[in-house]
Amino acid sequence: MTKGPIRLADIAKAAGVSQGTASNVFSRPEIVREEVRERVLGIARDLGYKGPDVKGRLLRAGKFNAIGVASLEPLSYFFDDPWARAMMKAVSDVCDETGTGIALVSARNQQKLAWNINSALVDGFILLCVKEGGRLVDLSRQRQVPCVALALENAEDGFPIIEIDNRKGAEAAARHLAELGHKNFAVLAITHRSAVPGTVKPEAVASAMSSSARLRIEGYFDALRDFDINPQDVAIHATLNDKKSVVNALEALFSAPEPPTALLAMSDRIALYAIQWLTERGISVPNDVSIIGFDGVPEAALSTPALTTMQQPFEDIAAKAVSAILNDEELASSQILDVKLVLRNSTAPPRSFSASLI
Predict the structure, then answer these.
(1) Mean pLDDT of the chain
(2) CA–CA separation, 167 vs 204, rounded Å?
(3) Quick one: which of 288, 314, 276 has its CA closest to 89?
(4) Which residues touch 95 (CB under 8 Å, ≥6 apart)?
(5) What is the DSSP code (8-state) at residue 308?
(6) How many CB atoms lie within 10 A of CB 79?
(7) Architecture category of domain 66-159+315-337 in CATH
(8) β-strands 101-106, 309-311 pairing
(9) Cα gap 344→302, rounded to integer Å
(10) CA atoms within a 13 Å half-sphere pointing along the CA-CB vector of 297
(11) pLDDT, mean of residues 136-156
C-alpha cells in the first residue's frame, strides 16, 4: 500500500508497465493492448485511482480546446431568446468542425463573476451582446486570453468587437416599407432592462436605449426622411423584448384614432409577438398592418405569415469569433458586417384600415 494520494506512477509500478503506457491507458486507450489496458484499469480501481488530473494536464499543455461564452443575461437566455439560440447554433457549428468545446459562463451573479471567469477552463471568451458589461470586459482581459465581443456598449481601448451595421440595416427595413407606400409608422424598440418600457420621444432615445437600438432608430429615420416622413410623427414604444411589454405597446398603438399601418420591430422576437397579438384580434398581417423584423432567426421563416426581416450573418460572425480565439488572431477594434433584407409575406402595400377592428 502507498501512503498519501495515489499517483499514476504507483499504478504503473503495480501493473508492471511504464508510466507512459499507464498514461496512454487513460488518455489514448486505443493504442494499448487490451490485456494491458484491463490490467492497469483493474489496479486503478482496486487502489481507488480515478485517473490523471485533467485540469493539471490541460494547464501544463496551455490549451483547453474550449471557448467560453459569457453574457450578463441569465443562463436561460441562451436557450429562451431566438437571437441567442441562432448565434449559439452558429458558434456550435464552427466548434463542431474544429472539435472545440463550449462552456457557458454565468456572468449574472456579480458576487461570483470574477470566480466564474477566472476558473473557466477555456482558451478565450466570446462576450455575447454585452450591455453595461464593463466589469465583464475587464475580467476577461485580466485572464490574458483572446476575447471577442458581439456588440459592446461604450466600447473602449480598442476591445475587439464583431458587430452588424445596425444603422444601415434599419435604414433598409424602413425604406422597404416606405417604398411599398406606407406613411403611418411605429417603432417597437428595445430598451435597457433597468428602464421602464413605454412611449419614447425621439429626443429621449439616446438616454433610453443601448447604442445598437439608437443606431437602428437613426437608420429608420434616415430612410423615412427621404419619403418626407417627420420622425416626430413616428410613434416609438420601448419594450423589454418580452411578450408583456410588446403587448402593452400594441394595445397603446392600436387604441389610437389612427393606428399604424407599418411596424418596425427591432427584433424578430418582438415582430413574432406582434403578429400573434394582431392575428388574435382579427387584424390582418400584411393586409391591415405590415411588420418587418430584425435578426433573421429560424422562427421568422416559420411564422404565419412568414416574417420579412433583416438577416444577420450568424455564420460569418461565429466563424470570425471562433477563429480569433482559437488562432489568437489580432482583431481590429471593430468589424462591422452587413445585414440583408429577406422578403417574405408580412409586408405589403397599405390599404385603408379601421380602428373598429380592435
Answers:
(1) 88
(2) 18
(3) 314
(4) 67, 101, 102, 322
(5) B
(6) 11
(7) 3-Layer(aba) Sandwich (3.40)
(8) unpaired
(9) 10
(10) 22
(11) 80
- How many whole angstroms separate alpha carbon 346 and alpha carbon 48? 64
Per the CB < 8 A criterion, the answer to whether 126 and 321 are in contact is yes
Residue 353's pLDDT band (cuts 50, 70, 90): very low
- Count of positions (residues) in the chain: 358
Domain boundaries, the chain: 8-52, 66-159+315-337, 166-308+343-357
| Residue type at 54 in one-letter notation | V
Cα 162 from chain centre: 12
343's grid cell: 422578403
pLDDT at 261 over 70: yes
Strand order across the 198-199 sheet: 198-199, 235-239, 185-190, 262-265, 290-292
Q: How confident is the model over 156-179, as pLDDT tens digits?
A: 557 888 999 999 999 999 999 999
Same CATH fold, 166-308+343-357 and 8-52?
no
Q: In whole angstroms, give the CA distance from residue 262 to residue 257.
A: 15
Contact between 218 and 167 under an 8 Å Cβ cutoff? The reply is yes
Of the candidate CATH numbers 3.40.228.10, 3.40.50.2300, 3.20.20.70, 1.10.645.10, the domain formed by 166-308+343-357 belongs to 3.40.50.2300
pTM here is: 0.82
Asked if 298 contacts 313 with a C-beta cutoff of 8 angstroms, the reply is: no
Specify the CATH number of the domain 8-52: 1.10.260
125: nearest Cα among 109, 149, 89, 101: 149
